[in-house]
Amino acid sequence: MATTTMTMAKALNEGLRRAMEKNKKVLLMGEDIGKLGGVFRITDGLQKDFGEDRVIDAPLAESAIVGTAVGLAIRGYRTIVEIQFDGFVYPAFDQIVSQVAKLHKRSDGVYNMGLVIRLPFQGGIGAIEHHSESPEAYFAQTAGLRVVSCSTANDAYWMIQQSIEHDDPIIFCEPMSRYWEKGEVDLEQPPNGLFDAVVRREGADVTVVGYGASLKTILRAADTAQGEGVSLEVIDARSLAPLDIDVLVKSVEKTGRLIAVQESPHTASVGSEIVAEVSQRAFYSMRAPGLRVSGYHVPYPPTRLEDDYRPTVDRILDAVDRVMEF
Fold first, then answer.
1. By CB count within 10 A, which of 100, 138, 142, 250 is most buried?
2. In sequence order, which ranges of 93-212 are alpha helices (DSSP H)?
3. Percent of the chain with pLDDT over 90
4. For residues 117 and 89, what is the distance between their CA atoms, to the nearest angstrom?
């Protein structure tokens, strides 16, 4: 097995490179992704190696970028669009929900939308307004879109390639605060299907599910809980639309307790859907109501307050105490 260690940012770069080498119809498009290599350097060196016709520096116009990608998808190209920061996606929202999500169905299958929209999201980087939001629920609720999120370098490397090869449009959510963390990457074989949830840590007492940047916090909470005699089973959802409910139900049938962790506000959220679906399908196995640990229902705060806004180990452990005591 050929493995190497790299950051998540480098893993995404190498995954894009491999996809472009395999398929000459794979194009990249976004603001400053060419000569600069993107604000996070995810596309560093790709324009130099593949040319300006395949790695396209676009103007500051998200709606035009996504609209152009729709036209390219109709012509059979596989376009990966980079949105610089999550909060900048809203000018393209009409294109995404009205065109990207619907053209395959509207054309009765004549047009595929082999289109990936890369969306750096979640907080933890000390950024200003519109740079640390979690808009995944908007897209997960939109029929016709798939929404996935990586939490490790290995998943980043493989999931971006799997997304590019998929015929449905995919919102690819990347946790910005994890870009520079290193992990082992298997260069030969993808570990899971694109839409599979994964048990990251076996446990017996409480199922805790999250995605993106939340996974590291959940695993830290699991270490602390273990020292207090409570065993947490940690599940990485990875796919938010569709959700791999079967994996979650199987875990809750074992533990009897469920906590969903996310950075987005809890109202009408992915975590809400997880709790609702699992409660419906595993009701007679549950020993306590499912809980959500999330951001608050307020706009994302200034940098000095973001650690109070995002889920923390203490907030997760507080939820663990509540479900254990129920």
1. 100
2. 93-95, 103-106, 136-140, 153-165
3. 94
4. 10
CATH of domain 198-325: 3.40.50.920
- Say whether 166 is catalytic: no
Q: Which residues contact 145 (CB under 8 A, 6 or more apart)?
A: 96, 97, 100, 101, 139, 168, 169, 170, 171, 241
Q: Which runs of consecutive H residues, i.e. helices, occur in the chain?
A: 8-22, 46-50, 62-74, 93-95, 103-106, 136-140, 153-165, 214-227, 245-255, 270-281, 306-309, 313-325
Q: Is the separation of the CB atoms in 117 and 73 below 8 Å?
A: no
- Give the start-to-end residue ranges of the domains of the chain: 3-186, 198-325
Q: Are 310 and 263 in contact (CB under 8 A)?
A: yes
On the question of a common fold for 3-186 and 198-325, the answer reads yes
AA letter at 3: T
What SS3 state is found at 295? strand
pLDDT reading at 1 higher than 80:
no
Span 30-44, mean pLDDT?
Answer: 97
Nearest to 110 by CA among 161, 56, 73: 73
Short-list 279, 300, 193, CA closest to 244: 193
pLDDT at 163: 98
The Cα-based distances of 256 to 275, 276, 290 in angstroms read 13, 15, 9
Residue type, 67: G
CATH superfamily of 3-186: Thiamin diphosphate (ThDP)-binding fold, Pyr/PP domains (3.40.50.970)
Residue among 131, 166, 266, 297 flagged as catalytic: 131
Whether cis (ω within 30° of 0) applies to the bond prior to 242 is: yes
pTM over 0.90: yes
CB 27 within 8 A of CB 34: no
